[in-house]
Amino acid sequence: MSRVIAPGSIVGVLGGGQLGRMFAMSARRLGYRVHTLAPEHDTPTGQIADVEVNAPYDDLDAVRAFARAVDIVTFEFENVPAAAVAAAEEHAIVRPNGRALHVAQHRIREKTFLAGHGFPVVPFASVRTEAELAAALDRVGRPAILKTTAFGYDGKGQMAIGPETDAIAAWDALQRQEAVLESFVDLEREISVIGARGVDGTRASFGPIDNAHRHHILDISVAPSGADPEILAQALAATDGVLDALDFIGILCIEFFVTRDGRLLINEIAPRPHNSGHLTFDACRTSQFEQQLRAICGLPLGSPDLLQPAAMANLLGDLWQDGEPRWEAALAFPSVKLHLYGKRSARAGRKMGHLTALAPTATEARTLVVDARESLKKRG
Ligand SMILES: Nc1ncnc2c1ncn2[C@@H]1O[C@H](COP(=O)(O)OP(=O)(O)O)[C@@H](O)[C@H]1O
Ligand SMILES: [Mg+2]
Q1: Quick check: CB of 78 below 6 Å from ligand 1?
Q2: More confident residue, 70 or 153
Q3: Cα→Cα distances 127→85, 107, 170, 181, Å
C-alpha cells in the first residue's frame, strides 16, 4: 500500500479547472504524465495534461477506462459523484479517499462530522421542510444565512436572512433544496490553513493565510496572517486534528472564521488545493500543488516555508468588461507574477487568473498586488 508512485507514472485528475491546471504543471515539472477527465472540452487542466478525456462524471464506464489508464487518481473538483469515485477505486488508487469527499460534499454532513469530533463550528440547523425551517430559525436566530447543502461555491446557493426577511420566500429562491441555516457571524477576519498529510501520516501545512472576500468570492489572500498568535496556533492544531480524523492523504483546506469576540470557528473544508493557497506557487518553497502530488504519491512532503510575505489577488471576468486587461502594466511590477488559466470566455464572477506579489511585509505585498490589479484597468 505504501508503494511510492514514482516520477514517470501517470496521475489522473478528475475535474478540469485551474486547480487541476496548476497541479498538472507541478506534476509535469517532476516528470509525471497527467490525464484529466471532465465534461468540458479544452479545459484549463486539459491544456496542460498529456491526455484530456471528455465525459460526464456519471459516465461510470468512462471513469473506469480513465482509471485503468493511470497509476493513481486524484481530483480537483469536490463535487465528483461518489459513484464515480467508487468506479475509479475499482481500477486505481484514489487519493484523497472517498470518505473525505463524502463529508466535504454536504454541508450538514460536514458540520456534523466536525462538531462530533469536537471542532468548533457555526451554530447550524438542517432545513428539509417548512416545519424544520421554523424550528431552525428558533434555534439559530437572526441574522442567519440559508445555504444549500450541496454544490455551493463562491456564495452560490446562499440567502441572507435578516430581521425582516421572509424565510420561506428565501428558501423558495433556493428551489426548496435541502439546506442548512447558520447563524450570521460577526467576523473579525477570515483565515485558512492548507493542510497536507502524506501516506505515512506526516503533516506539513501552509498558513494561516488571511482572506478577504467580495460578494462572497475570495478577492485577496495575504500570508502570513496578521491574526492573534493564539488564534493562529489554534487554527494549525485544528487542521492537524481534521487531517488525522479523516485519515486524510493529500491537500485539505480549512476555511476559518475569527469572530470579533476572539473565537475561532471552522466555516468549511475543501479536500483539495484552494484558491487561498495560490500564493504558495510563488511564495513558498513547495507549492500546494506540488505538495498534493508528493502527498498522494507517497513521496516525502516538501517544506511549506514561506520565503517572503506575499499577497494574491483574483482576476475575475469582470475585469474584461472594457476589453482585454493591460497585462503589460501588471507585468511591469518587478515582484508581481501573473497567472492566467486559459479560459476563453470572461463571464462576470468567473475566476480567470490571479496575481501574486512578494514584498518585505504582508502589508506591502497587499498594497502591491492591489496596485498591480488596478493597473490592468487603466486606459490610454
Ligand atoms: N455564517 C456566516 N457568517 C458570516 N459570513 C458568512 C457566513 N457564511 C458565509 N459567510 C461569508 O460568505 C463566504 C462564502 O461562504 P461559504 O460558506 O464559504 O461558501 P462557499 O462554498 O461559496 O465558499 C464566506 O467566506 C464568508 O465571507
Ligand atoms: Mg467558502
Answers
A1: no
A2: 70
A3: 28, 11, 12, 7
Three-state secondary structure call for residue 139 = helix
**151: pLDDT confidence band, cut at 50, 70 and 90?**
confident
| Residue 67 near ligand 1, beta carbon < 6 Å | no
- Residue 292's H or E segment, with its range, is helix 288-296
pTM here is 0.97
Which ligand is closest in space to the CA of residue 155? 1
On whether the CB atoms of residues 366 and 221 are closer than 8 A, the answer is no
Q: Quickly list DSSP for 184-212.
A: PP-EEEEEEEEEEE-TTS-B--EEEEEEE
Distance 155 CA to ligand 1 centre (A): 7
Distance 123 CA to ligand 1 centre (A): 13
Contact criterion met (CB below 8 Å) for 122 and 257: yes
Amino acid at site 318: D
Segments of the chain assigned E as strands: 10-14, 33-38, 51-54, 72-75, 93-94, 124-127, 144-148, 158-161, 179-183, 187-197, 206-214, 217-223, 250-259, 264-270, 310-316, 336-340, 351-358
User: 26-60, pLDDT tens digit by residue?
Assistant: 999 999 999 999 999 999 999 999 999 999 999 99
> What sign has the CA pseudo-torsion 287, 154, 212, 349?
positive
C-alpha cell recorded at residue 305 = 516555508
- For residue 236, which phi and psi values (nearest 5 degrees)? -65, -40
Phi then psi for 372, rounded to 5 degrees? -65, -40
